[in-house]
Amino acid sequence: MNMKKFSIVAKESEDGLWAQFTLPEALGPTEVKIYENIDAAAKAPIVQQLFYLPFVKSVRLSKQSLFVERFNIVEWKEVIEEVAAQLENYLNEGGIVIEATEGETIPVTIYAESTPNPAAMKFVANKPLVSASHEFKTLEQAAQAPLAQALFAFPYVKEVFLDANYVSLTKTEAAQWETIVMEIREFIRDYLSQGKTIVDPSLETSTQAEQSEKMPLAPIEEEIVSILDEYVKPAVASDGGNIAFEHYDADQKIVHVLLQGACSGCPSSTFTLKNGIENILKEMLPEKVNAVEAING
Q1: Half-sphere exposure for 134 (CA within 13 Å, toward CB)
Q2: How many Cα neighbours within 13 Å face the side chain of 227?
Q3: What φ, ψ does residue 181 adopt, rounded to 5°?
Q4: What's the pLDDT tens digit per position in 249-297?
Q5: Cβ atoms within 10 Å of 226's Cβ, excluding its own
Q6: Among 92, 135, 24, which residue's Cα sits nearest to residue 238?
Q7: CA-CA distance, 135 to 4, in Å (whole number)?
Q8: Rounded to whole angstroms, how far apart are CA atoms 87 and 82?
Q9: Cα(48)–Cα(32) distance, rounded to whole angstroms?
Q10: H runs (alpha helix) in the chain
Q11: Which end of the chain has fewer CB atoms at under 10 Å, N or C?
Q12: 12, 68 Cβ separation under 8 angstroms
C-alpha cells in the first residue's frame, strides 16, 4: 500500500513539436530553465532521464511542468503515453526533479510508502538527504544526526534509518500507521524545507572513512559484494532497507550479511534471504556459496 502515487498529465502542442507533462504538484524551479543537452541537465535528474530518449531535442522545466521538444523522427502521438509513464515511474521510485543551487530553494515534497515490514514505513524526499546510509536504534546513537534526534521525540518512533533520499522509520507496536503517517510526513517536509541539518558532516565523513578502512576483500568476497550491489541492494532499498556484506566463511561457504532499516526485524526477511539473495549467489557463484545468514536476523 503506497500512501501516495504521482500521476502525470500529458498534452501535445498544436504544432505537434512540443509535449507538456504536468507534474502533480510544484516540484520544479521557480523560474523556467532551458536544457539543450544531457550535460546541461546535470542538476536536473528528471531532465537527464528524458535526454536518454533519442527523439528528445530540448527540455524546458518550470515549477510544475516539463515542456519537451522532439526531433522529426517520431510523432508525439506515438510516444507521449510511454514518456508520461516513464516520468511517473521515475517519480514514484523516488526520483529527483531538480537539485537546488546556491541561493535557490526547491519546494520539498515527501511521500510515504509502505514496506514488506508492517512495522516500518519509508518516507521519500525529492532531494538527496545523505551520502551514506545511517541506522539509529536509540536516541543516544543519533547524537550526530539532528533529524533522527527530532524523530525520536515522537513516542511511537522506535528506530530511524537514513539513506540516499529517504527516511525509513520503525514504529512501536502500539502505534498504527493510519493515525501517525501524515504527522510524520509533514514533520519531515517542514524540517527539510527549513534547511535544518540532517546529519553532522563529521558523521558522513567518519562513515565513509570506516568503509574505506575495512580489511581488503578476498577475490570471492569482491564478487559477492559486486553481486549484492548490482542485483540485491536496489530492490532492498526500494523496500526501505539495506543489506551490508559482513564476512564470508570460506570453510562453511556461508555469506554473513547485516540487515538494516525496514529489513531489520521484517517477518519476511528470512524468506527473502533464503529464496532471493541466497539463490542469486548460489546461481552466480556455483559451489562457492552454501547459505546466506543475517548476523542480526
Answers
A1: 31
A2: 19
A3: -65, -40
A4: 999 999 998 888 877 767 666 666 767 888 899 999 999 999 888 877 5
A5: 13
A6: 92
A7: 25
A8: 9
A9: 16
A10: 45-51, 76-92, 146-152, 177-193, 201-212, 219-227, 233-238, 269-272, 278-284
A11: N
A12: no
For each of the domains in the chain, give its residue range(s) and CATH number, in order of start.
9-92 (3.30.1370.70), 110-205 (3.30.1370.70), 214-294 (3.30.300.130)
Q: How far apart are the first and last CA of the chain?
A: 25
166 in Cβ contact with 160 (< 8 Å)? no
93 φ/ψ angles, rounded to the nearest 5 degrees = -95, 10
3-state secondary structure of 282: helix
Q: Which residue reads 568476497 in cell numbers? A: 221
Which residue type occupies 275?
Answer: N
The pLDDT value recorded for residue 215 is 67
Count of alpha carbons within 13 angstroms of residue 172, beta-carbon side: 8
Give the sign of the dihedral formed by CA 93, CA 98, CA 99, CA 104. negative
R_g of the chain, CA atoms, integer Å:
21
Question: Which amino acid, one-letter code, is at 77?
Answer: K
